[in-house]
Design brief:
With 136 residues, this protein is mostly helical. 65% of the residues lie in helices and 6% in strands. The chain is built from six helices and two strands; from the N terminus they run αααββααα. The protein has a two-stranded antiparallel ribbon with strand order 1-2. Strand 1 and strand 2 form a beta hairpin.
Length: 136
């Protein structure tokens, strides 16, 4: 399933994804415990429902080769970030990413290392675009 075709996730589902990303695969019991230590006081049945929804949407996979189902994230944090940023660009900027990125960088206090990373990415993008133009 492509990132563009996945349904969005709720805030509660995002909390489950964070538990899977931060601690790796786990059974319902393990995910429930992880969420409890992060301040989520949900019933076990709620965690099961959230995991099942995430699996249906393509964000999580499960394996029952052992005693209990083990759930693992099938989408990385970065993939979800790109999807959510795309949704935001679509909603607020007619699908254009530049205004969104410019607004974000203007209002955030970036550290020198982050600025250097952004400069490197812009340089790589510029080089890639220049290479594509040469091929035309």
């Amino acid at each position: 399933m492509s990132p563009d075709s996945r349904a969005s996730i709720s805030d509660a589902e995002r909390e489950v994804m964070l538990a899977l990303w931060d601690h790796g695969p786990g059974s319902v019991r393990e995910v429930h415990e992880r969420l409890g230590t992060s301040g989520q006081d949900w019933a076990r049945s709620t965690v099961i429902t959230l995991l099942q929804r995430l699996e249906k949407k393509g964000y999580v996979t499960s394996d029952k080769s052992g005693f209990a189902f083990v759930f693992r994230a099938s989408v990385s944090r970065e993939e979800l970030l790109v999807q959510r940023m795309g949704e935001l660009a679509d909603d607020l900027c007619d699908g254009q990413w530049a205004p969104l990125l410019l607004a974000f960088t203007e209002r955030q206090k970036l550290k020198p290392k982050e600025i250097a990373e952004l400069q490197k990415l812009v340089e790589q993008l510029s080089a890639r675009l220049a290479e594509e133009q040469k091929k035309r």
